[in-house]
Structures are given as structure tokens and as C-alpha cells.
Design goal:
about 550 residues, alpha/beta, Rossmann fold, Luciferase, domain 3, GMP Synthetase, Chain A, domain 3, 3 domains, 13-stranded mixed sheet, 5-stranded parallel sheet, about 30% helix, globular
Length: about 550
């Protein structure tokens, strides 16, 4: 039974004294983690939250469980919130803590929220929208030193846990219980992706063994391996409100390892991250693409740290460009860089491995056996070497669908040739050796003169210029081409490059028709806290620029 609650209980029983979570001020053993999540589960159960309709009674886009919002910065409370909810058969979901009131109200309404765990500093924003929501069964406020008083009807998180029983909640978690992750909404409104816990475990949380060694067969196998995970210590730099950070953390925890958090969990503090890695002897660092890589590399060039234990850099959720991989490996030559590919709608699908001895810069990913490319018309799966640019798809362990959206569920998860696929909208091409070149989301594709130009490949080409710190491209109207590529450029401090110089660099990597027709310099490119570009902002800025 691969419910996430059951896995937590089994591993905690096997290695109770080992560290599970380390923060800047507290250290929690697996036994601590087990008891605290039980206590939280009992708090939620006592409030009447849980599972009210079993999975077999529901359509793919329906939920029979109560939903718990996690409106939190990174901390032990986030991971406890997830597992504690699962132990009560409640479905937690991620809240983007950067949302303004209108966005927050949309999300909590769309998710049909029944309870909220939130950091105290968010209390004023939450107070403004609570009267517009149905009454919440549970409000748990986490003290963060901000001094904000408890909201009406709220309880202090630690006080609530202290008053609850540490016996297992009187329910039986099931592997069909939901794992919910809300999409970032960078190209549209956020949507709740519904996964069965068994499926997300095998798709992204450690059910597939490293190095192509197959899949986990039984819970007993995990328990047997758990003591060997004590040397694995991982620091997830992205916020847990991003699915990739959740997956990286639980993949590590499901091996019996330790999640280590830096002191500053509200912003990317590169010096703090490197100091924490040195102090806690971290072995794995997780980031999200270039937006995290650049400041980390810049800081490594300024100061020296003992990073002798760091062996793996994992990146997912956004592009990690070849120049930045090279920069990491020049500074840390013993590092192995795993650049992962996946999405909220598919789970982790594949990766590329780069080391200091690797001289290639191929954009292709080695995908798992369930991932392939479907033809343009969504009628068949393409064979290796077919040159058609089709739709990236995954079979096997895929989500049920989007919460209360039957139409989008049917479109994104079609059945083709008797096989149900996840097709979230990425364009891709299957090469002769079976690897897959991913071009990016069709929703941010630019159609110029009938040619499709994918934003991410243009952005990567521009980032090869040494003066470019960050780049995002967007479409703007063109009388001749219909749409043209406009590049928004953030230069490195004190550096500049002319349009011609940027074009010359991009032309080394792109066909001429893909080159930007205009450039807009900005002080800072807008990205989400998880490092993903805000394409809505980019499109609006590009549209306003003089032409």
C-alpha cells in the first residue's frame, strides 16, 4: 500500500533516531516527524475533515476529500502539513505566497478550501478575504516572529499540536487518496492537478529507483533500504509551494534521508545556502533552472566554502542552460548535474546527466519508458527518428485530471490506442537514438510567418552572451510576419551589449527566422518564486514597447 502516510509511518518505525528535517533552529528526528504529523492529523480529524467519498465513486476530476491550504514559506510545518493531512485522509494543496488578495481569493475558492495552515505574516492578507470564503473548519497560524495576533477562530500551530494525541488518527489512509498540486498559472489561471498518491509516488516521489534499477516492489523493500539513506542530506532551495521542491524532498525522505533547510526561507540567499551546505554536510542541492543557478554561481566566485560533501546538483521545473552548467562544473568539478524534466500534469519524466568530463551540450532528455511523442493529430505514438514535431506525452503513472474541470481533463488526458496519456502541451521531437528534444509549451510558442518558434530555445541562445544575466522572449504583432520575436534582456551589473552583438550570439545557435526582431532592456525580469518566467508580464511589456 503506497499511500504517503503509510510510507512515512513505516520509515519512521525503521529509523526513529535518524534526522528527518533540519532547520536553522530545530532538528527533528524521524520519530519526531512521525508523532508531529499524527498530532496534526488528529487536529484535522477532530475538526471533521477527512474523506467523505471513496475514489471508485468519483469521476476523474472530482474529489471526495476535504482540502487543506498550505499558505507557508518553507519550513518543517510545510512537510508536516502534507503528511499530517494525509494521515487524516485530507488533501493538502500548495498556495503561492506571492499572490495578491484577488489571486488568493480565486485559488482558495477554486480549491473549495476547508482549512488553512498559514504563516502569521500572511494573516492580514488572509483576513481581508476570509469573509468572502465559506467558513473554515480549521485555521492554524504558524508563529514566524512577525508578531501578528491570531486571526478570529484561529489556533496557534504548536499549541494545537501540543494538545492533540500522538496516536495514529482513527482512519486508514489509502493509496487512492489525493495528492493535489496547483499549477503556477504563468500562462493562465492556476488549476488543481489531482493525483492518486500511488501514481505520484511512482511518477515523482521515489517509486522509481535511481540509475534505471527498476521500481519499488513493496513497502518492505523501502524499509530495508531506509537505514542506508542516513548519509543522504538534501537542501531544496525552491519553495515547497512548487511541485519540483516537494518531489525532490519526498524522493529523498523516501530513501530515509534528511531534508536540510537554510536560514533564509523567504528569498534566495546564495551565501546562506552555501554556508548551510558546508555546515550540515549536504550531499544534494535542488534548484529550479537558471534563475537559481545564476546567483549561486556568482556567490561561489566571491567566497570560499567547504563543499566537499556536495555531489549532486538537481534542477527541474525550468531550463538550466549549458553555459551555467559549465560554470558550475568549472567551480565544482566533482559535481554531477541532473537536469530533470517534468510537469505538474505528468510527474518527473526524464533527465540529462552532465559532469566535468562531458563535452556535449545536447538539448535532448533521456526519458523513461512511459514517455514518448504523439503525432500532431494525437492519433499515434511516433517512432524513433521520425522528424515530426509532435506532442510530448506520458502513459502509466499519470494524474486523474484537473479539479472540477471535465473538459480540460478530457483534453489533457486522452486515450489513444487504448492507452491513457498525459499531454500537457509541450512540443517535442523524438531523435533516432530514442532521446527526446523538448521545445517548450505550445502556449508560449510564437507563430512567425507560419513558422513555430519556441520561447525557451530563443532564451537559451541569448543566454550564451556573457553580458546577459537573464532573458525572456514574447510575441509582438507584425504586419509582415503576423507575430515577431521580441526579447526582454536583463544585463549583468555594469555590462551591456548592442542588439547586433546579441543577434550574432543567438545566430550561432538558431536558424535566422527564429532570431529576435526587437530587444527590450530591463532592470529585472519578473519570475515566480519558483524561478519560472512570467510570460503574461513579458507579453504585456513587449506589447507596450515602442516599435
Amino acid at each position: 500500500m503506497f499511500s504517503l502516510a503509510t510510507i512515512n509511518e513505516a520509515i519512521a518505525d525503521a529509523i526513529p533516531g535518524n534526522e528527518a528535517i533540519v532547520t536553522a533552529t530545530r532538528r527533528f528526528t524521524w520519530h519526531d516527524f512521525q508523532l508531529r504529523t499524527r498530532r496534526l492529523g488528529n487536529v484535522l480529524h477532530a475538526a471533521g475533515l477527512g474523506c467523505h467519498r471513496e475514489r471508485q465513486e468519483l469521476e476523474a476530476w472530482e474529489s471526495g476529500q476535504d482540502h487543506l491550504a498550505l499558505y507557508l514559506y518553507n519550513g518543517n510545518e510545510y512537510l508536516e502539513g502534507m503528511i499530517g493531512a494525509y494521515k487524516a485522509r485530507v488533501a493538502p494543496f500548495n498556495v503561492n505566497y506571492r499572490y495578491v488578495e484577488a489571486e488568493l481569493l480565486y485559488l482558495l475558492t477554486d480549491a473549495q478550501t476547508r482549512g488553512i495552515i498559514y504563516h502569521a505574516s500572511f494573516a492580514p492578507r488572509l483576513a481581508a478575504i476570509l469573509p468572502k470564503l465559506p467558513p473554515q473548519a480549521v485555521l492554524l497560524q504558524v508563529d514566524d516572529g512577525s508578531g501578528e495576533p491570531l486571526l478570529p477562530g484561529a489556533r496557534d500551530y504548536e499549541a494545537a499540536l501540543a494538545e492533540a494525541s500522538d496516536a495514529p488518527p482513527p482512519v486508514t489512509p489509502h493509496e487512492d487518496d489525493l495528492y493535489i498540486v496547483y499549477t503556477g498559472g504563468t500562462t493562465g489561471m492556476p488549476k488543481g492537478v489531482l493525483w492518486r498518491q500511488r501514481d505520484i509516488f511512482f511518477a515523482a516521489m521515489g517509486g522509481q529507483l535511481p540509475g534505471g534499477m527498476g521500481t519499488v516492489g513493496t513497502l518492505d523493500e523501502m524499509v530495508e533500504r531506509a537505514p542506508m539513506g542516513s548519509f543522504i542530506r538534501s537542501l531544496p532551495a525552491p519553495p515547497f509551494m512548487h511541485g519540483a521542491a516537494q518531489w525532490a524532498s519526498f524522493m529523498l525522505l523516501h530513501q530515509g534521508g534528511t531534508v536540510v533547510l537554510p536560514s533564509n526561507t523567504r528569498a534566495l540567499d546564495a551565501d546562506d545556502i552555501w554556508r548551510t551546505i558546508a555546515r550540515e554536510r549536504v550531499t544534494t542541492l535542488s534548484i529550479v533552472g537558471d534563475a537559481f543557478a545564476r546567483p549561486l554561481i556568482d556567490q561561489l566566485k566571491k567566497a570560499s566554502y567547504d563543499l566537499s560533501t556536495l555531489r549532486i546538483l538537481g534542477s527541474g521545473g525550468a531550463i538550466l542552460s549549458p553555459p551555467l552548467k559549465k560554470a558550475f562544473l568549472e567551480l565544482l568539478p566533482d559535481l554531477m548535474i541532473f537536469d530533470g524534466f517534468g510537469s505538474s500534469e505528468t510527474g518527473a519524466q526524464g533527465a540529462t546527466l552532465t559532469t566535468a568530463n562531458d563535452t556535449t551540450s545536447s538539448p535532448a532528455f533521456k526519458m523513461d519508458a512511459d514517455t514518448g511523442v504523439l503525432d500532431e493529430a494525437l492519433t499515434r505514438r511516433l517512432a524513433p527518428g521520425e522528424e515530426e514535431v509532435g506532442w510530448l506525452a506520458r502513459a502509466g503513472w499519470v494524474p486523474l485530471g484537473y479539479f472540477h474541470d471535465a473538459d480540460k481533463t478530457r483534453r489533457t488526458y486522452p486515450t489513444i490506442g487504448g492507452v491513457r496519456y498525459a499531454v500537457p502541451g509541450d512540443r517535442a521531437q523524438l531523435t533516432a537514438d530514442g532521446s527526446i528534444v523538448v521545445f517548450g509549451r505550445d502556449s508560449v510558442c510564437i507563430n512567425s510567418g507560419g513558422e513555430k518558434i519556441f520561447a525557451e530555445e530563443v532564451e537559451q541562445a541569448l543566454k550564451h552572451h556573457p553580458a546577459v544575466y537573464d532573458a525572456v522572449v514574447a510575441p509582438t504583432p507584425s504586419e509582415r510576419w503576423g507575430q515577431q520575436v521580441t526579447a526582454i534582456i536583463q544585463f549583468r551589473a555594469g555590462q551591456r551589449a548592442s542588439d547586433d552583438e546579441l543577434l550574432a550570439t543567438a545566430a550561432e545557435h538558431l536558424a535566422r527566422f527564429k532570431l529576435p526582431k526587437a530587444f527590450i532592456p530591463v532592470e529585472q525580469i519578473v519570475r515566480s518564486a519558483s524561478g519560472k518566467p512570467d510570460y503574461r508580464w513579458a507579453k504585456e511589456l513587449a506589447a507596450k514597447a515602442p516599435r
